[in-house]
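Hi support team,

I submitted a single chain yesterday and got back a structure, but I'm not sure I'm reading the token output correctly. Could someone confirm the output below corresponds to the sequence I sent? I've pasted both exactly as they appear in my results page.

Thanks,
R.
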Amino acid sequence: MIRGGREVSRIEGFSDAVFGFALTLLVVSLEVPDNFDGLKEIMRGFVPFAATFALVCWIWFEHYAFFRKFDAEDALTIFLNCVLLFLVLFFVYPLKFVFSRVIPRLMGQGNGLIMSQSDGRMMMWVYSAGFVAMMAVFWLLYLNQHRNRKTLGLSDEQTFAAYAGAQTHLLSVFVGLLSVLLALTLPINWLGLAGMIYALQGPLHWRNGVLISRQRERAFPSSTPAPP
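Hi R., thanks for writing in. Yes, this is the structure output for that exact sequence:
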């Protein structure tokens, strides 16, 4: 099988199967309703389901992008990839649970978040811990490529991509750690800030992307298109 100009590795094939299974778990957890009230209940869960689906797809895309950049098959990459797949499978249901409780509340459905204060706090830091763990794995994947660039025979552009990827995912790790800290320390009435802090991802990654683009232009001026 050829994709992206080269043969798909066994790591990618196995990983795609696991991601597909993770998405399947989201579907099989839904029961076919036997009455209209049950159907309405499922429809109310459409947005949380879509949010969980989108998050898993985003993790898959990050995985896809890494293996498009590097023909990585060393032992550490295989180990980290297995850790990532384990985290994806393990956190599918917790992620869906979080979204099914938080999103209805944001949509004005007051019964979307019925739990004790301690459970709400735990829900937030468990979600953030899972996010941190997956982003940390991506950071380590890119860092491994950059640190072993000579041994792995990376080109200059691949070396820069490894540096940029590690820097990008480290930003996500910091945001997730901040959310964990807030979830553990904020008064319960302010616990929502532990989730809202993820909005920092947008401006932080936008700024980081601008800086990386400028660095790439300086490092590889011949690869940038000439102005019209």
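A quick pointer for reading it: The chain has two domains: 1-110, 115-228. Let us know if anything else looks off.

Best,
Support desk
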